[in-house]
């Protein structure tokens, strides 16, 4: 088992949903946590990353920094999605090698798998077919990150691993609307419809795509388990192994929010991949599975959302 106690750990991207969940989870591991704020290092700039790494010398890195967004963000900001993510990964992974970081965990994304991958998706589906076009930019960058970890492991013997999370949601998610993933986008829209007494909420797509969702706090716990117990090249899937249709998800959000109006589906908006559910056998065999059900996770996320200042949720803060 790889020991975290006593180590200097850098969570790159500590303000995001994944990074902040990791910061909370790692507080119980008796380690020193490092942060690199935007003013200290722009992670897209090699010189800034190298300077920060030289000065702070982490033993362990969780690479959770990324430019992220939902289906609309991916299709309208392709350059940012591919450039930012390639630069962040390449800079951090190369300087981790140069400064002798003892373990690094890189986070991929379930969109790295082919659009028509066999379901549930096993790890060996990587590069077995064409990608979903709407998020190919992000996917290509994330595949490059996984391959960087594998290449540094092969050539230099670095203990760099990759985790492959399914669709995520939870505390500190991006609720700004147009650029958000489906859960925060719909939770906010349905919440606002409830407040306004609107008679209808419009959901994008047909409602038939199937997605698997993992709660942020479960993900953080899974990542800690993975870094402690795994050391190999293959990116390891992290999910719950169950999926729901977007329609079923909408019904749950409507219930959690307490919205009484109607829901309609706008099929002129993209559906994206028809189905995405991960095979989670490797994590199960390592003795880990998530603890929070989708309903509980949505309730907890909604409680957090209600406690945020209005401006922050709208992305104005
Ligand atoms: P994906 O899993 O990479 O496709 O990312 P998303 O979380 O953006 O979208 C998941 C699914 O939810 C897609 O089928 C969307 O069409 C559907 N969806 C329905 N309403 C919304 C919405 O308001 N925002 C987003 N982002 N997706 C929505």
Explain the overall architecture.
The structure is a single chain. It contains eleven helices and 13 strands. The N and C termini lie far apart (42 Å). It is globular, with a radius of gyration of 19 Å. The chain has a six-stranded parallel β-sheet with strand order 2-1-3-4-5-10, sandwiched between helices. The chain has a three-stranded mixed β-sheet with strand order 11-8-13. Strands 6-9 form a two-stranded parallel ribbon. With 317 residues, it is α/β, with parallel strands linked by helices. The longest helix is centred in the N-terminal third of the chain and has 21 residues. Strand 1, helix 1 and strand 2 form a beta-alpha-beta unit. Bound molecules: guanosine-5'-diphosphate (GDP). The site of guanosine-5'-diphosphate has 21 residues, from helix 6 and strand 7.
What order do the helices and strands come in, and which of them pair?
Layout: E1 8-12, H1 17-26, E2 32-34, H2 46-56, E3 60-63, H3 71-76, H4 78-98, E4 103-107, H5 136-156, E5 160-165, E6 167-169, H6 182-196, E7 200-204, E8 210-211, E9 213-215, H7 216-229, E10 236-238, E11 244-245, H8 246-257, E12 262-266, E13 275-276, H9 281-285, H10 294-307, H11 310-313
Parallel strand pairs: 1-2, 1-3, 3-4, 4-5, 5-10, 6-9, 7-12, 8-13
Antiparallel strand pairs: 8-11
Helix pairs in contact: 1-7, 2-4, 4-5, 6-8, 8-10
Guanosine-5'-diphosphate binds next to helix 6 and strand 7.
């Amino acid at each position: 088992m790889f020991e975290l106690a006593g180590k200097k750990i850098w969570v790159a991207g500590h303000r995001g949903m994944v990074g902040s969940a990791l910061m909370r989870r790692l507080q119980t591991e008796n380690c020193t946590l490092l942060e690199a704020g935007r003013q200290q290092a722009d992670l897209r700039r090699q010189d800034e990353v190298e300077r920060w790494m030289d000065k702070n010398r982490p033993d362990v890195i969780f690479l959770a920094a990324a430019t992220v967004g939902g289906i609309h963000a991916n299709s309208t900001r392709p350059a940012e999605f591919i450039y930012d993510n390639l630069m962040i990964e390449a800079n951090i992974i190369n300087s981790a090698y140069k400064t002798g970081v003892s373990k690094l965990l890189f986070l991929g994304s379930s969109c790295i798998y082919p659009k028509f991958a066999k379901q549930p998706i096993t790890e060996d589906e990587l590069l077995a077919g064409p990608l979903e076009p709407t998020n190919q930019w992000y996917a290509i960058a994330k595949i490059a990150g996984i391959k960087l970890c594998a290449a540094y492991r092969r050539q230099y013997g670095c203990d760099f691993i990759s985790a492959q999370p399914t669709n995520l949601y939870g505390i500190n998610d991006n609720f700004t609307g147009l650029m958000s993933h489906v859960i925060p986008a719909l939770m906010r829209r349905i919440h606002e419809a409830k407040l306004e007494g609107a008679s209808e909420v419009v959901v994008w797509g047909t409602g038939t795509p199937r997605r698997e969702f993992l709660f942020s706090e479960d993900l953080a716990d899974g990542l800690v388990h993975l870094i402690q117990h795994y050391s190999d090249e293959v990116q390891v899937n992290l999910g719950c192994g169950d999926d729901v249709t977007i329609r079923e998800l909408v019904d749950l959000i409507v219930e959690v929010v307490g919205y009484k109006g109607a829901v309609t589906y706008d099929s002129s908006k993209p559906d994206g991949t028809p189905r995405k559910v991960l095979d989670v056998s490797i994590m199960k065999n390592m003795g880990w599975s998530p603890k929070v059900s989708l309903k509980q996770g949505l309730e907890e996320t909604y409680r957090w959302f209600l406690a945020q200042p209005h401006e922050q949720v709208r992305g104005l803060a």
